[in-house]
Amino acid sequence: MTHVTKTAGTTTETVETDAGTARITWHAAKKARLVLAVSHGAGGGIEARDLKALAEVLPAHGVTVARVEQPWRVAGKKLAPAPKTLDTGWRGLWSALARPGLPVVSGGRSAGARVACRTATELGAHAVLALSFPLHPPGKPEKSRAEELLGSGVPTLVVQGGNDPFGKPEEFPEGPYRLVEVPYGDHGFAVPKRAEISQEEAVAVITDAVVEWTGSLG
Fold first, then answer.
1. pLDDT digits (tens, 9 = 90+) for 74-119
2. Which phi and psi (to 5°) does residue 167 adopt?
3. E strand or H helix at 16
4. How many helices (H) and strands (E) does the chain have?
5. Phi-psi region of 167 (alpha: psi -120 to 50; beta: other; left: phi over 0)
6. pTM more than 0.85
7. What are the residues whose beta carbons fall under 8 Å from the beta carbon of 32, sequence distance 6 or more?
8. What is the pLDDT of residue 9?
9. Would the pLDDT of 138 be above 90?
């Protein structure tokens, strides 16, 4: 059972999953060749600066963007459930994301990036976009989640803030993925006022990298 509403430039759809009701906000490209599905982290929503920017920029480059809200966010809860429940929600959405009949790039920020990596092969994702991949909890590099990233099994792009406490770019292991650094960026890609690049330039690093990468995907 789905429910669809339309406003200027976007379509919002609710989807029932085994983890509860999820929501997809579609930003359609006129001549789409890919769908980029991106979900939020454990502490925020789809209004995150990187997710908003991708939704604004990518449709002009032939990529339909689907910003996905996990059931816990739709239900108004403050804290994300266990990773297994997040994976259940993502699996339950997949048929809706694949409905346009296009290859789907599975993506997300932080906890959403982990979900995308864990489920990519199983769901048949075309590629994975990992924004602010939380390589480890802050201050606990020994609790590495590198296996999830290295196990995605599909072409993967990591976009990481240079000052991300969940894992700086130089902490990432060698592996079959591309990594783009957002200079000075924290876990939310915010840059300090004294940084050598502006907030707008930092966001442009993200969108430019994703435009180029999605353009290179076969």
1. 999 998 999 999 999 999 999 999 999 999 999 999 999 999 999 9
2. 145, 110
3. strand 10-17
4. 6, 9
5. left
6. yes
7. 59, 62, 63, 64, 100, 102
8. 73
9. yes
Question: Residue 2 above 80 pLDDT?
Answer: no
Residue type, 111: A
| Side chain identity, residue 109 | R
Instruction: Note whether 113 and 107 are within 8 A (CB).
Output: yes
Nearest 10 degrees: Cα torsion 208, 36, 115, 134: 10
Helix (H) or strand (E) holding 39: strand 34-39
Burial class (CB in 10 A: 0-12, 13-18, 19+), 129: buried
Angle, helices 49-57/199-216, rounded to nearest 10 degrees: 50
Q: What angle do CA 70, 202, 125 make, to 5 degrees?
A: 40
- What is each CA distance from 38 to 51, 110, 193, 194, in whole angstroms? 7, 11, 28, 30
